[in-house]
Amino acid sequence: MTAIAAPRKDRQRLHAAALTPITAERGWRAHALVIGLALIVAGGVGAYIYQLINGIGVTGLNDQVFWGLYTVDLVTFIGFSYGGAMVSAILRLTHASWRGPISRIAEGSALVTLLIGSLFPVIHLGHPERVWQMFTRFQINSPITWDMLAIVSYLLATVVLFSLPVIPDVALFQTQPELAGWRRRLYRWWAAGWVGTPEQRQHLRRALTTTAVVIIPLAVMVHTVLSYAFSLTSRPGWHSTIFGPYFVVAAVYSGVALVILATVAYRRAYRLHEQIAVKSIINLGYVMAALGVAYGYLLFTEITTEGYVGEESAEVLLFSLVLNQWAVLFWLFVLAGLAVPVLLVALPRTRTVTGVSVAAALVAGALFLKRFLMFIPPLTRPLIAGEVATYAPSWVEIAITLAAVAAIPLLLIGLFRIFPVLDVHEIEEIEDGSDRSPAPRGASA
Amino acid sequence: MPEAEGPTSPMQETSPASVFGTPQVTAVGVPRRQFLFSIGALGLGVSLGGRVLDVVLASEEVDTLARTVDPNHQWVMVFDLRRCDGCGDCIKGCQTEHHLPESAEWIKVYEMHDTQGKPYMMPVLCMECQDAPCVRVCPVQATYYRPDGVIVVDEQICIGCRMCMAACPYGARVFNWKEQTGISPDLYDDRPEFTVPQRQGTVGKCTVCVHHLEADKFPACIESCSMDAIYVGNLITDSASNGRETVILSTFLRDNDAFRFREELGTKARVYYIAGHGQDLDY
Predict the structure, then answer these.
(1) HSE of B7, CA atoms in CB hemisphere, 13 A
(2) Which residues of B touch A394 (CB under 8 A)?
(3) Cα B116 to the chain's mean position, in Å?
(4) What is the 3-state secondary structure (H, E, C) of chain B?
(5) Which of A120, A174, A279, A387 registers the highest number of CB atoms within 10 A of its CB?
(6) Is the pLDDT score of B51 beyond 70?
(7) Preceding amide of A168 cis, omega within 30
(8) Tens of pLDDT along B152-179?
């Protein structure tokens, strides 16, 4: 067991590195970035106030395409959060030694994206001020009720998943002289008397294992239930048994991509090359590529089962998606969201930090597009007869969406100006090999 | 089709009260708006009404969902497509009655094609499903079954999530995207059965004009249909009327091979169609 009191030289460097986002001098570019992001977010907030005043009619939605960009945002952002939670939980349970430097960033992105994503179910309502009625007039049969229950419990679990591993780190840094007074006071409160006794370590380890075990099925549940809002209707293109797993795999796929992007960004911006090994990023790339292959398989299965039978309504929709109206976007997704990212990771030449980052950026963007293609084209098809409907998002929807995108880096920057960006405790435990002992070994040590 | 035999044979000289009123009231003879109905009718009577009630209540049509059931009224509608020429007067009548904007069609008229490619017009409104997807998915119970089987939306409660629109296989629900202006406050009404004006940010739909039915008037679409193609009926009294003639509902449906739209979805709709394509029916 390493004592907190006397860190070794490399440990000291690690400790300093974990605090660089807090302690580093900020140049004009950092300030410009934060101000720029804050302005975009403010624009989105303004757009939402405009929507509150003028009503939901300020969107481009209509009676046929009644769900649009907000629904795409909802599923995409909650999906992003899923990746962070799964990466952290699965890697912890499997004791993957390369998880150390990325787990804090993964948990942070999970928390931040879920906070943003869970706003969209409210933003899309016609009467957001009545949302409390979901509790007072509870209706257990409704998929929307399930969504609400799942998202709320998942949000709680994600807060725990982020807050618990922070404890030893804030305890370690609570006396750090270069930190501001409020931060030291916050750390002292958050540390809750942690001094790193073997008993405390064991408690924490158990709590983290429990959280990890709980959050995996919970996250699967959230995304399955989200898919039910679509698949439990009789609409062609939505009414599909594959939707549950389809949503789950898409969510982890895009979420891992986001973790890669955030990790690479912090690694570059604060020169954490020594602490965040290339191996960790490449391994995340492998995970992402495997999920990409899985998603491609689900897509293939969906199209084959619908297309081969050729039931009229499904066939018309499929034709417009793959060969006609939406074909450019669809094949763009297949190329930029599946083929290119998987190849970038698969080919040794491009299997570099840059290559994996490019792949992750493609995946994150392409999955947004894929959600659009999943929800909108089926709605544009006439349900009974008549014209194909159109949908063009209004400036309000676009402004709010851009704000949500900008809020991810902004909130991450804010989060890691408060908490250490690296899970120092976990990295040290992995180095010591003491993370693998759920049995009370530490008690006798 | 035999000359004029099909639709006329089940027709009986029944009292319009047998469609709207309780079977008991029929005998008493409460004053009615006579212009709406054919005159000199014979009521179906308490005995028939009571017998039908037993049949209806025993059938799964009503008791699949635990809810209070009105023993006197269970509304249905019948569209005789042989008579519909697709003029769209029903749409206008509905919009006038409910003070709807022109974009909101609670009853829509679709041009459909039969197997020979021959076009026919098909009005579609809320099917008043007795196993309704929309009621099931509403997270706040804002949409519900009235005891008479009509599904209504309480726009004071609706949160505007539009899940019901996703669930409805008939596209019957219309969202109120914009604030409605220019309606005199004297006309304002809060009842779920008759909300005026439609509240922005909530969903609206056909109510079979139950506010009319309760006042022994026909729904607005029927009043405005110059082709007499739309019937409103009562399962309890087993009668239906299009405002000009009254028929025995069960016989009328059986003899004319009535069908329900998208029967395979299991929604147990209460709107029936008689196939046809606007041919001239000479009664």
Answers:
(1) 24
(2) none
(3) 29
(4) CCCCHHHHCCECCECCHHHHCCHHHHHHCCCCCHHHCCCCCECCHHHHHHHHHHHHHHCHHHHCCCCCCCCCCCEEEEEECCCCCCCCHHHHHHHHHHCCCCCCCCCEEEEEECCCCCEEEEEECCCCCCCCHHHHHCCCCCEEECCCCCEEECCCCCCCCCHHHHHCCCCCCEECCCCCCCCCHHHCEEECCEEECCCCCCEECCCCCHHHHCCCCCCHHHHHCCCCCEEEEECCCCEEECCCCEEEHHHHHHHCCCECCCHHHCCCCCEEEECCCCCCCCC
(5) A120
(6) no
(7) no
(8) 999 999 999 999 999 999 999 999 999 9
Å from B50 to nearest chain A CA?
34
**Residue B127 near residue B107, CB atoms below 8 Å:** no
- What number is the average pLDDT over the span B210-234? 95
> How many residues does this entry show for chain B?
283
Chain A nearest-CA distance from B264, in A, is 11
- Whole-model pTM over 0.90: no
Which residues have C-beta within 8 Å of that of residue A292, sequence separation ≥ 6?
A: A253, A337, A338, A341, A342, A363
DSSP letter (8 states) at residue A130? G
Query: How far apart, in whole angstroms, are the C-alpha atoms of residue A45 and residue A404?
Result: 10
pLDDT at A433: 78
Q: How is residue A434 annotated by DSSP?
A: G
CB contact under 8 A, A142 and B162: no
B132 — contact with chain A (CB < 8 Å)?
A: no
How confident is residue A311, by pLDDT bands cut at 50, 70 and 90?
Answer: confident
| Backbone dihedral region for residue A309 (phi beyond 0: left; psi -120 to 50: alpha; all else: beta) | alpha
- Rounded to an integer, what is the distance from CA A213 to the centroid of its chain? 18
Which among A414, A399, A437 has a CA at the least distance from the CA of A123? Answer: A399
Phi/psi at B145 (5° precision)? -85, 130
B257: how many CB neighbours lie within 10 A of its CB?
Answer: 10
| Cα A81 to Cα A77: distance, rounded to the nearest angstrom | 7
Neighbours of A203 (CB within 10 A): 12
Q: Which of A56, A62, A145 sits opposite B139 (nearest CB)?
A: A145
Token readout for A330 is 């669809």
| A438-443, long-range: CB < 8 A, 24+ apart | A438/A205, A438/A206, A438/A209, A440/A202, A442/A1, A442/A198, A442/A199, A442/A201, A442/A202, A443/A198, A443/A199, A443/A202
- Domains of chain A by start residue, with CATH: 29-278+392-436 (1.20.1630)
Contact B283, B6 (CB under 8 A): no
| Residues of chain A contacting residue B175, judged by C-beta atoms under 8 Å apart | 61, 63, 66, 126
| Chain A contact for B177 (CB, 8 A cutoff) | yes
d(CA B237, CA B49): 5
Alpha-carbon distance values, B165 to A59, A66, A130 (Å):
17, 8, 19
Burial class (CB in 10 A: 0-12, 13-18, 19+), B197: buried
* Rounded Cα distance, B149 and B270, in Å: 9
Domains and CATH numbers, chain B: 5-47+60-207+226-274 (3.30.70.20)
Judge whether B128 and B208 are in contact, CB under 8 Å.
yes
- Which residues of chain A does B166 touch, with a Cβ-Cβ cutoff of 8 Å? 66-67, 229-230, 233, 235, 238
Residue A369 φ then ψ, to 5° = -60, -40
